[in-house]
Amino acid sequence: MQRLTRTTTRALAAFLEAPGSWRYGYELMKVAEVSSGTLYPLLARLTEGGWLEARWEDSALPGKPARQLYRLTATGRAEARLALERAEASWLRPPRPREV
Fold first, then answer.
1. pLDDT band at 63 (very low <50, low <70, confident <90, very high)
2. 6-17 and 36-48 are packed helices; what angle lies between their axes, rounded to 10 degrees?
3. pTM of the model
4. Which of 61, 63, 66, 99 has the most CB atoms in a 10 Å sphere around its CB?
């Protein structure tokens, strides 16, 4: 991953809350406060980059569509932690008080 945006940071932080757990898109939209039009392309990029694995889950309720679930790979967990540490050290840190 070349660039870590605030949106990507929020999504990765959501995954790191439970790094081994499968998460579905709607849940991630709510936790990361990201729209579906932003989230799903991001999930596709992270999956193609090897940070996430994805699988389909059939609904237990008749008539409801299957949903795709995502979770961090081992590489994704390590890379996400490093990326968030770098972001925290640079642009995520709180602003310094101004000297007068």
1. confident
2. 70
3. 0.81
4. 66
